[in-house]
Structure formats: structure tokens, C-alpha cells
Design brief:
Elements: H1 2-26, H2 33-40, H3 44-56, E1 60-63, E2 68-71, H4 74-103, E3 106-113, E4 116-123, H5 129-132, E5 137-139, H6 144-151, H7 155-164, H8 178-191, E6 194-197, E7 204-212, E8 218-227, H9 228-233, H10 236-256
Antiparallel strand pairs: 1-2, 3-4, 3-8, 4-5, 6-7, 7-8
Helix pairs in contact: 1-3, 2-3, 4-10, 6-8
């Protein structure tokens, strides 16, 4: 029973914190503890404790002269990041649709987030049980999109990645050692292409290329996913040509829109 009470209290405090931030967002001017307490019908002591915590984490800022609070500048960063992701998907979507029509295979758009690839958008091609089982979050070391991001890290960061993460040998082809990845890294950087040769799942092959911004920074990766036998039948060289062309087109559009 004590455990359930603890969980309920934690959720309640989070909800109250969100209510306070929402109130500060809606307010035209900075607000004091008493005003927030009255608006939300919460005890002043509770409001003060929550405000103090949010201030320490830079979610809100306090005017020391007036003892009033307003949202912190960190929300500008959050907003820009969310906007960037939404714009990226919007820009890439028509190009990805055209690529699927050209090759008939599934196409994915992914970003790097805390040591994993997050697939933020996919266009489905011909049916495939293997592709349908893919989850939207995958490790860097055994996915084609992940390798794009991993390869651009410094040698020290790559070494740390392999040392500190639980590297699982998903198939007999999975690269699990730093030294082996560094050999493959040379080709990834040179060709700006990476492959998952049945390293994540037997029978599944993926090809990926980078998506770049105006400063030539890699902000996302584009991949083709499909059954190995079917991709080989369609000629890998043709698929590589198409994904390069699409990746370049998306990057050029991003540069024009100053994303």
C-alpha cells in the first residue's frame, strides 16, 4: 500500500508542476506564489516547492526584485527542436513517397537521440513481415541509419560507445567490436552510405545515407529497408543510386528552407 501511495504522490506532483508551467505560459505577466496558489487552488507551500524545483532545472526563472516567476529560456530550445523535427518530416515526406514509388520498398527517416536511432517517419513499400516488425527505436551499431551517426563521432566517442553500451550480437553478422566498426567506418565516411547486412534481423537488409543542413551537419538519415533476397533481385546499385538522389534532394530543400 505504501508503494502505491508513493507512486500516486509522484504523479500528482508532476501534474501540479505542469499546471503551474501552463499557468505561467498563459499569463501575460510574471506571477507570484500567492497569485499562482489562488489561480490553481493549491497550497502556497506546495507552489513554492514546485517553483523552486523548476527554477533549479531552468524551466522557470525568478525576478529577484519582484519575487515573481515566468517561463525559462529553455523552452525556446525545446520549441526549436520540436519545430525542426516537424519541418524535417514535412520536407522529406514527398521525396520519400517518390522514392517508394520508384523502388517499391519501405523508406525511413531517422534522427539520433541519446545513442539510438528514432524513426520519425516511414513510407511503406511492398509488404514484408520483416519490415513490419521493425520498432521505431534501434541501436546505432546494428542499423544502417545508426551507423551514419556513429561513424561521424570521434574515435574516442565511438570507443566509449562500444565500451559503455550493452552490445548484443543479434545475428552472426552483427558488428559488436570497436575495431571491426572502425574498419567499416572508413567506407561509410568515404561513400556517405551505410549498410545493415542482416545485422539487426536475419533476412533484412537496409541501406542508409545522411541528410544534411546548410552547414553540412548531418541532422538525419534516410534508409531503404526490405527483404535481402528482394533487394538483391532489384539490383543494389540501382537502389543506391535512388537513395543518394533522394537524400541529396531532401538536403538541398532543407538548405533552402534554413532548417
Amino acid at each position: 500500500m505504501a508503494k502505491e501511495k508513493s507512486n500516486y504522490t509522484t504523479i500528482t506532483m508532476v501534474e501540479r508542476g505542469l499546471q503551474i508551467m501552463d499557468q505561467l505560459f498563459l499569463a501575460e505577466d510574471a506571477m507570484g506564489v500567492t497569485e499562482i496558489s489562488q489561480k490553481l487552488n493549491l497550497p502556497k507551500a506546495t507552489v513554492y516547492r514546485i517553483l523552486n524545483t523548476l527554477q533549479q532545472k531552468n524551466f522557470i526563472k525568478k525576478d529577484e526584485k519582484t519575487d515573481k516567476y515566468e517561463l525559462g529560456l529553455i523552452f525556446i530550445q525545446y520549441g526549436e527542436k520540436v519545430k525542426s523535427k516537424l519541418n524535417l518530416k514535412t520536407i522529406a515526406k514527398p521525396f520519400m513517397k517518390n522514392l517508394v514509388e520508384a523502388i517499391g520498398e519501405s523508406v525511413n527517416l531517422g534522427i539520433d537521440h541519446e545513442g539510438n536511432v528514432i524513426t520519425i517517419y516511414s513510407e511503406e513499400g511492398e509488404s514484408s513481415v520483416l519490415v513490419s516488425k521493425l520498432i521505431p527505436v534501434s541501436p546505432l551499431y546494428c542499423s544502417s541509419m545508426g551507423k551514419i551517426f556513429l561513424a561521424t563521432m570521434t574515435k574516442e566517442k565511438i570507443k566509449s560507445y562500444f565500451d559503455t553500451n550493452k552490445i548484443q550480437e543479434r545475428t552472426m553478422n552483427t558488428i559488436t567490436k570497436y575495431e571491426d566498426f572502425m574498419k567499416e567506418r572508413e567506407g561509410i565516411l568515404r561513400e556517405e552510405l551505410s549498410y545493415d547486412h542482416e545485422e539487426y534481423e536475419y533476412g533484412l537488409t537496409c541501406i542508409a545515407c545522411p541528410i544534411k543542413d546548410k552547414q553540412e551537419n548531418i541532422i538525419a538519415a534516410l534508409s531503404i529497408s526490405g527483404p535481402t533476397s528482394r533487394l538483391k533481385f532489384k539490383e543494389m546499385d540501382d537502389l543506391i543510386k535512388e537513395i543518394r538522389k533522394t537524400g541529396d534532394a531532401i538536403s538541398e530543400q532543407i538548405k533552402k528552407t534554413h532548417l
